[in-house]
């Protein structure tokens, strides 16, 4: 027979062609097969040791997927940074809880309206401002901080009862102290909103405390709202709290009107959080409310 070429490129010579001096034909083929199989075993062992990703025919993971993962991590860090840098926007309610507020469901309507306002603020998500709420109640025993200043989302409203007189002057002094105290309202906070709600005349000295409020470097810059409840409220006296001839004292004679007033305050405050400059005073037209009648 003629000589041939093996699978590894070597010249194959039959035994009879070399005079029987070479290894037998079967032995020769067995040796070639052994060498080929040995090479395959080495390759498989190397593949196992260095991993499949090192194989030349194994495509690498697309770079896009790694970039997407990095992008998600960066967005998460940006979100955390945004939340951490949101500046507080304080809203302080001066709530008359005198004994007369217990009549005609006024105190219940006030509690419901404040709770609704807090829950509405808690639902707001804006990067520039985080709304904080405090409630100063004035009635039996003087003025007291019923709800400490906290982010709205952290507040669980505890309803307040009605009893005693109307120490409004004490409430003015307490709000000035709160606004001027940097531990309560830091310098980085936006200008506060102060809301006064009352159904009658003050029973303590209120003029000097009000003047201290209006002369306060920080409290005087607050955005102010006022609501008189019932026929005994004194619009002229309440107007002095606003200290703005163009501002209006709103009145309520029914429970739904109290809630409408707080809806209006809520809309005005949330508009500030959405504005380019939350320090600007934004007062929503109350007639924009669907059932405006207060």
UniProtKB/TrEMBL annotation:
Q: Tell me the superkingdom of the source.
A: Bacteria
Region of interest: Disordered = 50-71
Q: Where is the VWFA domain?
A: 90-265
Q: Name one Pfam family in it.
A: VWA
Q: Which protein, by its recorded name, is this?
A: Cobaltochelatase subunit
Q: What species is given as this protein's source? A: Candidatus Accumulibacter cognatus
């Amino acid at each position: 027979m003629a000589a041939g070429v093996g699978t590894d490129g070597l010249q194959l010579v039959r035994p009879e062609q070399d005079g029987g001096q070479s290894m037998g034909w079967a032995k020769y083929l067995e040796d070639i097969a052994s060498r080929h199989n040995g090479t395959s075993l080495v390759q498989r062992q190397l593949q196992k040791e260095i991993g499949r990703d090192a194989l030349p025919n194994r495509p690498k993971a697309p770079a896009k997927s790694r970039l997407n993962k990095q992008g998600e991590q960066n967005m998460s860090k940006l979100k955390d940074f945004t939340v951490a840098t949101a500046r507080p926007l304080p809203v302080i309610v001066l709530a008359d809880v005198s004994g007369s507020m217990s009549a005609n469901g006024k105190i219940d309507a006030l509690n419901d309206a404040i709770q609704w306002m807090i829950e509405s603020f808690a639902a707001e998500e804006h990067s520039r401002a985080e709304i904080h709420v405090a409630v100063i109640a004035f009635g039996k025993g003087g003025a007291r901080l019923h709800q400490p200043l906290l982010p709205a989302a952290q507040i669980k409203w505890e309803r307040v009862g009605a009893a005693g007189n109307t120490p409004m002057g004490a409430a003015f002094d307490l709000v000035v102290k709160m606004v001027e105290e940097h531990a309560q309202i830091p310098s980085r906070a936006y200008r506060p909103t102060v809301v006064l709600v009352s159904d009658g005349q003050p029973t303590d000295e209120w003029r000097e405390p009000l003047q201290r409020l209006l002369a306060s470097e920080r409290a005087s810059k607050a955005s102010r709202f006022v609501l008189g409840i019932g026929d005994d409220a004194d619009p002229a006296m309440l107007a002095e709290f606003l200290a703005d001839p163009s501002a209006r004292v709103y009145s309520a004679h029914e429970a739904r009107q109290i809630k409408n007033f707080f809806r209006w305050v809520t809309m005005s405050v949330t508009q500030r959080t959405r504005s380019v400059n939350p320090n600007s005073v934004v007062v929503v037209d109350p007639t924009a409310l669907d059932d405006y009648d207060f």
